[in-house]
Write the structure tokens for this entry.
Amino acid sequence: MGGFRYGRYDDGPDPLRPPYDVRSALDDLGRSVMAGASPTRALRDLLRRGTRGLTGLDDLARRIRERGRELRSRGRLDGTLEEARRLLDQAVGQERAALFPDPGDDARLRESELDDLPADPAAAIRRLSDYRWRSPDARETFDRLRDLLRREVLDAQFRGMKQAMARGTPEDLRRVGAMLDALNAMLDADNRGEHTQGDFDRFMAEFGDFFPDNPRDLDELVDSLARQAAATQRMLDSLTPEQRAELLELSRQAMEDAGLADAMQRLGERLRARRPDLAWSGGVDMDGTAGLGMGDATAAVAELADLAELEEALGQGYAGARLDDVDADAVRRALGRSAAEELERLRELERELRDQGYLSGARNRLELTPKAVRRLGETALRDVLSASGGRAGSHETRDVGAAGELTGTTRPWRFGDEQPLDAVRTLANAARRGPDDGGRLRLRADDFEVAETERRDAAAVCLLVDLSYSMVQRDLWGAAKQTAMALHALVSTRFPQDAVEIIGFNDHARVLAPRELAELSLEPVQGTNLHHALLLAGRHLDRHPGFEPVVLVVTDGEPTAHLEDGGFPLFSYPPARRTTELTLAEVDRMTRRGARITVFSLADDPRLEEFVTALVARNGGRTVRPDPDRLGSYVVRDLLSRRSRR
């Protein structure tokens, strides 16, 4: 009987993870666009902020900073110096203990030699290198000290060398020397243009155990070694001048004793020449209590540098920033596999927004597609209706589909139609095509036909939205855009027989298509040219003479601009008398068309109040003073109530 074993899945992304909702991510992106952000900025903010079920770049950057603080608290950088001093004092103490019982002159002479040792550990170690130890324990401790220095210096230059040099035998040192000679020769050959991948493969076959990160070619090896060398220099720069001088002298002496000083110097010069762009200077602050060895200290400094680069890439705050700039392997090393998967899911989200047809254009100049604009309109409408506690089409009606009397004719169904289906014609179309291979009669979209009705209740809807700079200053810009998008979505999807036009106005007015409205950015323009907006609205009503006229105005200020005879806008504050006269003249024309104007007044301004009172008196319309946060629900409710009355 077979058995089953359960464990953590580690073969790529988790196939059972809950999928993220691209449409809800688009809604979040759309809200930023509606607030005035460009699609490019909105996407960048979305990726930084994250969305439902998806961690953003800001959270990853926060965890990177926490990792850096944890690393800085790991220990001090002078651990090798501290350990060298301890072993030196231990060896000298063991030697004195062996000399003390001996009454001979040789013992006193040796004690005098120990008394005269320099305070500088490097100088003391150099003088003791030729000392004939009386105590075997002292000799062993001193050998441990010298071996420690060799291993720490090599580990600082070659990450993981401490493990490769665990035995510290003469054969190990000879092999390190052979590796350095081969590496320098390979770099010289590359400078002459004579290096091949085969040369590198043979080098790795012989010395690959010295390089646990397993570079694939010479460039990767040089990059790794240069970063390690630069980190070593930054680690030295982090010490006090006295500590730095001591450690440099100990390192130089250790390499000279091992016969590696010249090869190490040549390698350092070549690495610096190949990667001058690296940070070869500048210290770091470490505030831990334990002393770190030279190799571990260098590794900590190198990791801090990697974390700083990673945090900058995650911030995406530089020109041309892309998610591809973030190194997923670096994220995995710093934060683990789950964080790297979160980064990949953000990349998938960006791809899905394109693949599902919501975004188009270059990365630094994204555009919303018509599909995305429709979705934003639906979202704006849903938000508006949820704020009002209602739903689209919640008014009473006794008609099925579009209002109006049946004409007796039919036509093919189109998306958005609300007319009643003609079941007989629909089934007849399917029957003429015949059954499928299984003998079943199947309906297709092109089979459907709807009954035509007379459009006796159709409306020509004009929404005039103030886009002047005062709307921005009063934080009304986003609410106005949301209202316009919601109204357009309501009419387009629930009342397709109506004709809707959105007109924005500041110093001049213009008709805004849904995409233009969605991507409209903040405009620091003074002027409230309601005169021009009413002119454009009148043209829309005149193009639809059989429709009921609906004119809605959203504004926070009295008219301060008008259109001159030559077509040029003229701004004046306080408002010129001619501005008021021309605007009220257009109001009178609206009245003659039978259009009653509803003004949604968004500011407690005596001048605005005076103008709106005059407008309502001449037109017979009305004034609404909504809460700006619920502007959309007031406008939508107003339109729905008009349709309900019809």
Observations:
- The chain has a mean pLDDT of 81.
